[in-house]
Amino acid sequence: MFRALTPIVKNLLLITIGLHVVTSFFMPQLKSLFALYHIESRHFMPFQFVTYMFMHADFWHLFSNMFGLFIFGPLLEQFLGPKKILILWMVCGIGSGILYSGYNVYKINQLNNKVEAFSENPDPEVFNRFVSDNRHLFGPGIYDFIDAYSRNPDDADLIDRAKRNMLGVRDLQANIPMVGASGALFGILIAFGMLFPNTQLFLLFPPMPVRAKYLVLFYGLYTVYHIFVSNPADNVAHFAHLSGLLIGAVLVIYWKKDRRNFY
């Protein structure tokens, strides 16, 4: 089975797994340095658009991405050639990070607007909705504070505390890093589905055969659904997944226009 590994796929696996071992057991500080932060965060560095895709949160996060690369990557490399498979992986990964950063800027600006609106017109109901929208970032004690603030809406100290809570959530959201090669992997998935749409794949859960094009379609719809549902407790960067799908699709369409470019 391992003999079927192609050179670029094998090297990507070795590099990513190797870096996970290093950051997990020997130099854990590198994970926070190489993760991708909001561009206005004090932790942000431009090189993170490249390095974040080689970092992973835990073993299962690493396993899911590398297993996908292991399954779908070799056939794509044989068909596209080593240069194009590397371009696909890197462009989808870096592009996903850039697009997700833009999406993150939009979300942080929304939080800034809510903080400014509250500062101009403090209202316990507005603060209560803010807590409800970001409840995963508050401890249980916040509800006692909401009760006290609701009973004393004109208390300057409580208003100031509410504002500081909102600013704290904004700062926390701006400093939550993104890691993982999921954007790059979704580029691999869409390329596989477009180039080998009728290839039969056998799923483990549930155990059933499915054509590649339907599997990719399912992943795409699943990702779009979670973007619109926007569960605040969900720490998966679904927008980065969708970005990987879109960038990968654009690359394949561009390459398919001139078959002479396949090598």
Automatic annotation (TrEMBL):
Name this protein carries in UniProt: Rhomboid family intramembrane serine protease
Top EC class, one word: hydrolase
Enzyme nomenclature, EC number: 3.4.21.-
Similarity comment: Belongs to the peptidase S54 family.
Lineage of source species: Bacteria, Pseudomonadati, Bacteroidota, Cytophagia, Cytophagales
Subcellular locations according to the entry: Membrane
Primary subcellular site in the record, as a coarse category: membrane
Topological relation to the membrane, as annotated: Multi-pass membrane protein
Parts of the chain that traverse the membrane: 12-39, 59-76, 85-103, 184-205, 236-255
Domain Peptidase S54 rhomboid: from-to ranges: 47-103, 175-254
GO-annotated molecular function: peptidase activity
UniProt-listed GO biological process terms: proteolysis
UniProt-listed Pfam families: Rhomboid
Keywords: Hydrolase, Membrane, Protease, Transmembrane, Transmembrane helix
